[in-house]
Amino acid sequence: MVGGTDATGRRGAERGRRVPPGRYAAVAGDERFRRLDRRFRRAVAVGAVGFLGWYFLYVALAAFARGFMARPVAGNVNVAMLLGVLQFVSTFALAAAFAAYARRRLDPLADELRAEADGPPDAAAPAAFGRDVPPGPVPPARPAPPGRPAAAGMPRPAAPVAPRASDGRWDVRMGEAR
Amino acid sequence: MTELAFGVFVVFVLITLGITVWARANTRGADDFYAGGRKFSGPQNGMALAGDYMSAASFLGIAGLIALSGYDGFLYSIGFLVAWLLALLLVGAMRNAGRFTLADVLAQRVRRQPPVRRAAVVSTVTVSVFYLLAQMVGAGALVSMLLGVHPGERFLGMSAGVAETVTIVVVGLLMICYVMFGGMKGTTWVQIVKAVLLMGGTVVLTVLVLSRFGFDPSAMLGSAADASGRGDAFLSPGLHYGPDVEGDAYRTIVGKLDFFSLALALVLGTVGLPHIVTRFFTVPDARAARTSVSWSIGLVGAFYLMTLALGFGAAALVGREEIVAQDPSGNTAALQLAHAVGAHVAGPVGGDVLLAFTGAVAFATILAVVSGLVLASSTSLAHDYFGQVLMFGRPRESQEVAVARVAAFLVGALAIVLAVVARNLNVAFLVALAFAIAASANLPAIVLSLFWRRFNSTGAVAGIYGGLGSSLVLVFFSPVVSGKTDPVTGRSLSLFPAGVDFHLFPLENPGIVSVPIGFACAVAGTFLAREKADPLRYDDLSVRALTGAGSH
């Protein structure tokens, strides 16, 4: 099992201490994070299905419904031209809609959770190069909110584990590579 | 006239070299070199993204396609724009999860990083080199086109053939210089300047074209349709993509499938293009990354709407015969249009000035795009391969940046040599191939990494190599490599000369097959490996991606 903080025996090993995965397990189990995760997945799924569907509908019309596409609308503008410009309009509209959704429904939750997970940003220590994980203060061992549903299947540490002065990739290389 | 274009271009080069010197003085470490210190604002990065994305293929290629094939050129451009919506949906999570490269996004949650990083490097470098090759050969062709507008003209005493080679080498040396010395800071500003020039030039041309038709787009369309000799068919889909072949249902359906395949690669490929992905990390946080993609959508959209005026304007004001006489694929249409509208406004001198300016903008376009590509591949080679694989993730920072500079030189030199060798070949298909590889190899790995708890290293590696390999194999056996000839002249339209024909796969674009293969390999690799899923690391990744906790 990966974990522990034993030195790797190389120079600079203190930078390369192994970190146990699960640093954010407590956050991941938080009800608010799950809400954020659900909202994000739903937004991506709805957005992707919506715009891909509408775009491929348009492509299909261009390939198979050429009589319809050639129908005049006004002057020399035909249905094809109108639908093409509508693709632009819908792209701008969908982009604006997702940006607004993210600002209203995703960002506030994300900010709150990040602040709790990482502590205030100004307390961050200077980063050492080569680390995958930037340094920060050890997060306060926030007790899990009461009534938090236990993560099924996988035992999880209750709070962020271990000082984060470590490098996520070390465990990998030293632990399990090959 | 070409001296004038040369002069305008020299001014651009001097400005960008000045930027490079400034950037070199302000580049201290890896964060600066790879990610511009993550200090760019959303709008700045948005302009750079647009500058990175809108290649000469968009500017000259799409305008030319509209000028010759009418509506189908417009249809093609829409795929390039709509693709950005997928980027907008994923950019926040990718920005938070990653550090400098695509591999950083993928490798974090897997148990065995080195194979995943190696695979990502292979696909990044392949995509970049193909795309580079198409752009640099295009730069060579552009100089012949500029010369060709006034037949028999010599460029600074060189014949067109020599000028082509010299252009490729000069473009290559400039891009190496921007990237080696300027890093991400230099490259970003070059791309911002280019985006401003390109948008400015396009706005001027669009206004001049529309003014010829009393600012009535319908009148412009009508006049373009009349001049095209195709009548109303010019304003409807079907002249270029998926044409209805009388009495040959097989070829008709293959043509239509081919267009679907192209559309799929364009829409899904953009978010997997390495030079676009590295750009996500140049802003401080996910919010700024989203802002930058929104800006890019605005700019790219406005640009493609204006290419409508450029393309239909060229059809109406320059005319099909004159365009085809210059270049059978229409790439000179925008340049000829600039000459025509300039001459209309201010006489022959006006025409030459506008042509010179447009030509210089086209060169600036190419330079900015190739620099982005070289930077992306050198970042990946130095950070992912050298730093994380060879040096076990603990290189000295100065060492890794030095390797990145050397890698930029090597990739650039390789691209110059390949482009000089390939300068007379049909390599335009390489742009579509780069999108297809990005969609089939990189996208499955990105999406499954972010959203699938069960995904593992074997799955990521299998997905990347599966998508990459299938795209390459399918294209190798497709008509773009061998066996496609012009029905009238018998000239080869493939990479290989006429007479060589080993094509087995009927479509020119592999996406419709290779994207599903990429996803299937990723899923199959995940389940077939004896490697257990790693839910804890996945939790870490998803918290980081969604909230930005612990992000760089």
Rounded to the nearest angstrom, the distance between the terminal CA atoms of chain A is: 15 Å
What amount of the residues of chain A lies in strands?
A: under 5%
List SSEs of chain B in N-to-C order: HHHHHHHHHHHHHHHHHHH
The protein's oligomeric status is heterodimer
What's the overall average pLDDT of chain A, rounded? 71
**If helices are DSSP runs of H or I spanning 4 or more residues, what is the number of helices of chain B?**
19
**Mean of residue pLDDT of chain B?**
91
Q: How many strands, which pairing sense, and closed or not: the largest β-sheet of chain A?
A: 2 strands, antiparallel
Record field, number of beta strands of chain A: 2
Amount of beta strand of chain B: under 5%
The rough form of chain A would be described as elongated
Task: Assign the structural class of chain A, choosing from mainly alpha, mainly beta, alpha/beta, alpha+beta, or little secondary structure.
Answer: mainly alpha
Shape of chain B: globular
What does this structure look like?
The complex is a heterodimer of chains A (178) and B (552). Chain A is an all-alpha fold and 178 residues long. Chain A has a two-stranded antiparallel ribbon with strand order 1-2. The longest helix of chain A is centred in the middle third of the chain and has 40 residues. Chain A is elongated and about 65 Å long. In chain B, 75% of the residues lie in helices and 0% in strands. Chain B is globular, with a radius of gyration of 23 Å. Classes of the chains: A mainly alpha (178), B mainly alpha (552). Chains A and B meet through helix 1, helix 2, strand 2, helix 4 and helix 5 of A and helix 5, helix 9, helix 10, helix 12 and helix 19 of B.
